[in-house]
Design brief:
Blueprint: E1 4-7, E2 18-21, E3 28-32, E4 35-38, H1 48-61, H2 77-84, H3 86-90, H4 92-103, H5 114-138, H6 145-152, H7 155-187, H8 195-211, H9 214-244, H10 254-263, H11 265-279, H12 288-291, H13 300-328, H14 342-351, H15 355-371, H16 373-388, H17 406-422, H18 427-430, H19 436-456, H20 461-486, H21 491-519, E5 534-539, H22 545-555, E6 561-567, H23 570-583, E7 589-593, H24 601-612, E8 622-630, H25 643-652, E9 658-665
Parallel strand pairs: 5-6, 5-8, 6-7, 8-9
Antiparallel strand pairs: 1-2, 3-4
Length: 669
């Protein structure tokens, strides 16, 4: 008996002390009032195969964590900066290159505008970061633009925001990984032909790190992030000193600007617009901190807002600094092999061809590999929020052994790896699909915050309203520019996928609503007990221990019990009937001859005939189909047993007033 008591042996008769006997203690913790809390041992597998799989999983993923350990898995600001900001910070490694790829079309003269474009994008970054700080404070539950738009604008718009975010999280993993591989091949061109394999393996390792849980992921990812920031800052400082103080470099001079103004000014204006749209990928990942606020240690909102501000400052410095060096050192995409990235050329110019250059390339590649971790935290969390609102399958809201949203992590890694394979690991081919959804999402979230402040009118709401209104107008303008410029380069695909995802999520939500309506029980009054008649039908294949156990189970439920034997051999049926009447005389045996050798259809037809024979003025009884089932000893021989039962179960699932009951027989029963 759980929590039972008995007198201690050897005590005096008057001694009233008792000893608590709780045999459940190794598996459960008794918390009072008949409530038990399962310990880790209660979830341990009991079969040899299960224990083996648990050992393998524990080696790679780690031991299971209890839900109460979640607070210990929260992130401090330093680790959160490494995890949530790695995407945004790493974009400085390829955003400058995307700007120069466009400007090179206008010749060397047009390249001179690279610095001005990067400054304009940095200003846009500041505006977006300040706007998203308001979201961190107003919505500490996370969700970012989805939560904001759902509460302030409406369901459809919130699904558009969620769809755009999901697409860009997948693109973040693919773009960051492919760019990381390009950094490796820039330093070691011999690996160029293996770039797809390297990218897929890297995604697999990042997936494994995230399945181990947030805290361990933070330990893994923090060091490379700060190594890149430190080495990049040092490179910018050294390069700037050489350009400004020592006068080195090959800056595009004022005379080239005059050429642009006097000869191809209209063309340059278009190129500048396209270059701005290309460099806008630097803002991707800015929203991840607002989406992942619950992952921070308390106070969550304040820590998230502080981390967002630091991230924006670092990204702005890195982006402008790297572009300044690229422009003033005269980096060209034509004079060097395409395999070498712009940032690697800048590092080679500053650090030379020695060990510092290779270290910087290693730090950059590591950061870009790990930048995908931003999505590995934000994508599953957003899926979990959508699943909790019934817009995604509810499995995405379940947490794995290490408190990570394992299903979302696995889906993200599969999609990103697929993109790497399809686009052959080329960052430039993936970029046109990138950033379009981000600016759509920026605009929706800022518009939602406008309505939030107008409704809440909390202290300081006018100042916050003006910040978000400016952010909404700015990001809406950029969204139109980016979409228009990138439309024929692949942005049209994103514009097609967003409504497809919205339709899919609406369909899932509708299905959950229909299910809830069908299963809803009235809250008032007592719930009625069983009042209708019932009968038990047992399909049998002979007389054996599994059949006898199923018959005994049926006897416990009703007197209206019969067994059904389907065969195409009447001699065998007669032999079974003779034995049945001798050993189980109280249970009728119905023999169904099947000359066409069908096994399932005759049983279903027999049930239909029983229903039709029931008086039409009375409610048909509940039919309970009891299926004897043999439990195989090993996993490898399960294909040998119960196949007919499985087919019959599939045929009967959903049949009116029919219940299916499996009665498993295990050796020793």
């Amino acid at each position: 008996m759980i929590g039972g008591r008995r007198p201690l042996q050897g005590r005096k008769p008057g001694d009233r002390r008792v000893r608590l006997e709780r045999p459940h203690a190794p598996y459960f913790r008794y918390t009072g009032r008949g409530q038990l809390t399962a310990r880790e041992a209660a979830s341990a597998p009991t079969t040899p195969a299960g224990r083996m799989w648990a050992s393998i999983r524990g080696f790679f993923v780690g031991r299971p964590l209890a839900s109460e350990d979640e607070l210990g898995e929260r992130l401090a600001k330093k680790k959160a900066l490494a995890i949530f900001s790695s995407d945004a910070i790493s974009s400085s490694a390829y955003a400058t290159e995307e700007i120069l790829r466009v400007l090179i079309l206008g010749g060397a003269a047009a390249m001179a505008f690279g610095l001005e474009i990067s400054i304009a994008i940095a200003v846009l970054l500041i505006a977006v970061a300040v706007s998203y700080r308001q979201i961190c404070i107003a919505y500490p539950g996370g969700g970012g633009s989805y939560s904001v738009s759902r509460r302030n604008i409406g369901r459809t718009v919130s699904l558009v925001a969620a769809s755009a975010l999901l697409i860009d999280y997948v693109m973040t993993v693919a773009v960051s990984t492919s760019s990381a591989v390009e950094q490796i091949t820039s330093a070691f061109p011999i690996l160029f032909d293996e770039r797809v394999l390297i990218g897929v393996v890297a995604i697999g390792l990042i997936t494994l790190g995230n399945l181990r849980g947030l805290r361990e992921a933070g330990n893994i990812f923090a060091v490379p992030t700060y190594l890149f920031i430190g080495s990049a800052m040092l490179m910018i400082a050294v390069g700037t000193f050489r350009i400004v103080v020592l006068g080195e470099g090959a800056s595009y001079g004022p005379e080239l600007r005059d050429q642009v103004t006097g000869t191809i000014q209209p063309l340059t204006a278009i190129l500048i617009l396209r270059a701005f749209a290309a460099g806008a990928v630097a803002l991707t990942g800015t929203e991840a901190i607002a989406t992942g606020v619950p992952a921070f240690k308390p106070p969550e909102a304040k820590n998230a807002a502080t981390t967002l501000a630091v991230m924006a400052l670092l990204l702005g410095i890195l982006f402008i600094g790297l572009t300044f060096l690229a422009v003033n050192f005269g980096i060209s995409l034509i004079e060097v092999p395409v395999k070498q990235t712009v940032i690697s050329q800048v590092a080679h110019e500053v650090y030379g061809d020695g060990v510092p250059f290779y270290l910087f390339q290693a730090f950059t590649a590591l950061l870009l590999f790990l930048a995908a971790n931003t999505s590995f935290n934000a994508f599953p969390r957003l899926l979990a929020i959508l699943a909790a609102d019934d817009y995604m399958p509810r499995q995405f809201a379940l947490r794995g052994d290490r408190l990570a949203y394992s299903y979302g992590i696995l889906v993200l890694s599969s999609l990103a790896a697929g993109l790497i394979v399809i686009f052959h690991g080329e960052t430039h081919l993936l970029i046109p699909l990138y950033a379009v959804g981000v600016f759509i999402d920026f605009t929706i979230s800022q518009t939602g915050m406008i309505r939030h402040w107008l409704r809440e009118r909390s202290p300081g709401w006018r100042r916050r309203l003006s910040i978000n209104a400016f952010g909404a107008a700015l990001t809406a303008t950029v969204a139109v520019i980016v979409t228009s410029v990138k439309f024929f380069d692949g942005a049209w695909l994103v514009l097609v996928l967003i409504p497809v995802l919205v339709g899919l999520m609406s369909f899932i939500h509708r299905q959950y609503d229909l299910q809830a309506a069908e299963l809803r029980v009235r809250e008032e009054g007592l719930l009625p007990g069983p009042h209708r008649e019932q009968r038990v039908i047992i399909p049998v294949n002979g007389i054996n221990r599994a059949v006898v156990q199923a018959v005994n189970f049926g006897r416990a439920m009703t007197r209206d019990l019969r067994a059904v034997y389907v065969t195409d051999d009447l001699d065998e049926a007669d032999a079974l009937r003779a034995r049945w009447e001798r050993q189980l005389p109280d249970v009728p045996l119905v023999v169904v001859e099947s000359p066409y050798r069908a096994m399932i259809s005759p049983v279903v037809a027999y049930l239909d005939i029983l229903d039709q024979a029931w008086p039409p003025d009375k409610e048909a009884p509940l039919t309970i189909v009891v299926l004897p089932e043999y439990v195989a000893r090993h996993w490898w021989d399960r294909l040998l047993y119960n196949q007919t039962s499985k087919r019959l179960k599939s045929a009967l699932v959903g049949r009116e007033h029919t219940v299916i009951a499996d009665v498993p027989y295990r050796r020793g029963h």
